[in-house]
Amino acid sequence: MTSYARTGKVNQQWSIIYVDKASKEITKGLNKRGFYVNRPFMIVSRMWMNRFISVAGGNNLVIQTRKDNEKRQMWRFDQVSKTIKSIFDDKKSMDVRGGNVYSYPTDSRWY
Amino acid sequence: MVLIFKYDNGWIVNEQKHIIAVQSKLDYENRQVVREARNTEIHQQWDILYLDASKGVPKSGFSKVWGMYINRPFHIQTQMSSGRFVDYISNRLYIKTPNKRPTQEFYFDYVTRTIRCKGYNNYAIDVRNTLAYGYGINSYWY
Are residues B19 and B72 in the same domain? Predict the structure, then answer.
């Protein structure tokens, strides 16, 4: 955190939330980001074959034919980190690096 | 924030306005998922299927999308006057008089979305150039 001259931009603006008025993080239900919190889901392409996003190897995300009970194809929305977490490896979240999308360890520096 | 996404009516968008998409618009098995700038093409669009609302991979019943019953054996009969059946002989497809052999029995496999032959279970009907063949299932093309 640094001090700057005032610019009026959002990186300089803050809200004060009093502890006795603060609402708790929701643990279930639909959130503002369009996902149900902590409810496992799969992500299906709308292309012709309706393939599913799947973790291949350790980190790569690819599309694959659906397989029943395949944890590599399952995800959940984590309201604390606001990330899409892999159920195959709960320490990892969907992440964009360079031009590709990966499943990488969730690091509090980025969220 | 590159990993904080929202679901926006088919697009999965992060806070840098990147959306996730299928690489090169190719609907192949094991095709990479990539980031792109948003447009209206179908390779960028996804549905969220919640597990508790999902019925699993269908193994029987009629598929409205594909127009066939899943895993239910059938013959393919020409509508010409002979009424012959399609038959699988050495990778090629011919019309032949019905003979009750499994090479004249086909079924729709929902997993691969291909028409497979009971007589050659690893093969599916495939069009190459102008001929229809029976070729080994290859996840690259289904």
Answer: no
What pLDDT shows up at residue B25?
93
State how many domains chain B has: 2
Beta carbons of B19 and B11 less than 8 angstroms apart: yes
Q: Could you tell me the fold of the domain covering A24-105?
A: Trefoil (Acidic Fibroblast Growth Factor, subunit A) (2.80.10)
Question: CB distance from A48 to chain B under 8 Å?
Answer: yes
pLDDT digits over B81-93, tens only?
999 999 988 888 9
User: Residue B12 is inside which H or E element, if any?
Assistant: strand B11-14
Tell me which residue range forms the domain holding B114. 62-136
Is residue B118 assigned to a domain? yes
Residue carrying structure tokens 């086909």: B106
CB A70 within 8 A of CB B111: no
Chain A hits for B33, CB-CB cut-off 8 Å, are: 53, 61-63, 100-101
Lowest mean pLDDT among A6-10, B35-39, B106-110: A6-10
Q: What percent of chain B lies above the pLDDT cut of 90?
A: 61
Give pLDDT tens digits for A27-78.
889 998 999 999 999 999 999 889 999 999 889 999 999 988 999 999 999 9
Same-domain status, B44 and B75:
no
- Contact between residue B98 and residue B104 where contact means Cβ atoms under 8 Å apart: yes
Contacts of A94 in chain B (CB under 8 A): 3, 5, 20
